[in-house]
What we know:
By secondary structure, this protein is mostly helical. The chain folds into 3 domains: 11-243, 3-Layer(aba) Sandwich (Rossmann fold); 249-417; 616-717, no CATH class. It is built from 35 helices and 8 strands. The chain has a 5-stranded parallel beta sheet with strand order 2-3-4-1-5, with helices on both faces. β6 (630-633) and β7 (642-645) form a beta hairpin. The longest helix has 23 residues, at 148-170.
Amino acid sequence: MFSTDKPITDVSEDKLGRSGFAERLAKAIINFNTADSYAIALQGSWGCGKTSVLNMAICKIEELAGEKTVIVKFNPWNFTTTGQLIDQFFATMSNKLKLSKSDKRLQTVGGLIEKYSSVLEYTQYIPVVGPYLDVVKSLAKAAGKEMKETADKKLHDATIQKAKIEEALKEIDFQILVVIDDVDRLPNDQIRLIFQLVNSVAGFPHTVYLLSYDKDIVAHALDDVQGQRGAEYLEKIIQVPFDMPPIDEFRVRTILREKLEAIRKDTNSEQFDEMHWRRVFYNCISPLVNTLRDVNRLCNVLPFSCEAVRGEVDFADMAGITALRVFAPTVYEWIHNNGEHLTGEIVAKEDRDYEKRVQEESKKLYPKDPEFMLKAVACLFPRFSVETLYVGGCPDEEQLHQSMRIADRSKFNIYFSLSLENITIRRSDVDKSLLTMDEEQLRDYLAILTKEGYMQSYLKEVEYHASRVPANRVPLLISVLSFGQGHIDKNEELLQANDMVLCSAAIRRLFLQIEDYDQRYKLIESIIRHTNEDSFAAITRFVDSVDRNCEELKLFPSCQLVSDADRMHLCKVYIEDLMVVLGKRSLLELEEGDLAEWIWKKTDEDTYRDYIKKSCTEDGFALGFLVKFVRQYRNSDGSNALFDFEDEPYQDYLSESDSIAVINRMRKRRAFWELKRTDIESAAAFSLLIGKSHREKVSINEVNSLLSEWENEYNVR
């Protein structure tokens, strides 16, 4: 709910502990026992709560003085012209007194004021400074010769009417309290007119004026007609100034925290880091919020911002950046324009001059308190914190992403656009998939992501959030990610080949959530053993990820999925499955056959070599095997191709003469010319490269020339 920022009207609404001050102000006004006109001022900066104090004081005066004090409230900012202001001032005062039921004498005074007002129809000529009798000079000068006689008569009548008011007021024992609030909201000319009314034109006996304003603003308005001595003039008019008591920062801070906490709960923000919130609150928000008006401004804007991006941002960071947007827009814009640097990887400080440059920039951007800017930015952006020595905790990239912090590069723009339009995968959906979805729901969800092309984004999310996944959820997630259908014995794969690097990383992180090593190992072994021909490509990629994990993390045993010894055992289990599959189809026919070949050769080279040599007795397999030893180098348009041999010698499996014989036999068969063009070219390049030195290359022109000869020979046949 939005706060309307209306001033309080009753002591019971006081949250800043100012009711005591308001009561003392009320008693002081009641105790003024003077028959003269008196002017009191309540002075304080804009937004400090003067109107609320006035309202509480008036309530107390009404309670203590009863009918002995007539309170006239006049709001000068309701009128646009000087003439309207003067007319309505006297009309307000007159009507209030005429309606008095406590004493007929007050009604009489009200009538006299009405008549007084009517003879002041030349209100546009009333001077804003000087004694009352100077009105004649002003009138005469402004009216001109033709109206001088009329002006003189009006002045005479006004003087008589004012004297009648004064005499009537001297006979009563009532106090008239005229309250004029928000004087500092008026244009300068109307501010000056208000003080002329108080000082002269409406300076009646038994009348107390209570004015509320910002002293600096009013003094400045009076400077123009007082020779830059507006403050001195103000002191002459105001007999008793009351300064607003200092704002209790603790109370304001408490109110702010309570309101922000209510907003946070309404956003259903589950991810909440109390330590980070305290850091943001005290370094980024609290220094900017000094009054209840500030509290209401921030708390009116923040719910809208949070609702627009619900579930995709960190509440503390959204509150912090919103506070900067409302109260320090130059800092806010600087952050927006420097997102690329602020959200970069957290590294050791390399630019020694960066801190100095930022400090100088902060003096320009926020001269009121440059140190505040540095601390505010530092508590939102760990990288900036490190680089400027304002270290306030340095979460890593994964933590920033999990917490949806503004310092996370993928989230940064959301805090400024306040739009979810460019979000491909909602955080709430990621959480459901990792924490609550059953097998069927998860399978359906991933199928949708695959169809929409968001699978890679999802796998990145899995890697980021793997540490949040309970161990009992890991088997299900790994099975679904590896085998699309969620069952290790089903045949429908979900992932595309270009997703597998990300998938392997995600699976590795998920496995590490199972802290019990034996449990982890048994799960991996079970996945490898329970496979079939149709799911073998996924298993191959899975085994490769486990193998690479062990190789890459030899120096960090605690991060390895399995030990080196167990890794070798798992690879052997995989080879057993591979041999079963090879009973039905050739190695060259397998999806991910190259990867399977690499694992096999590395694990058990003897059996691999035996298989290759035996298979190469068939010319089709032999040719397919040989062309894999040829590397092709092409421009992006496919032109200017060059060919050479792989580092591994083909002679370990087929002799040079046998290789040439295989190619010569195959090129004379129709099956050869039905092969992929790249394989045909590689076969020709192989023939040309035999006998050449290591790393010597042949060109596409040479290859095409030889293929022309072969094709002519084939066609002749």
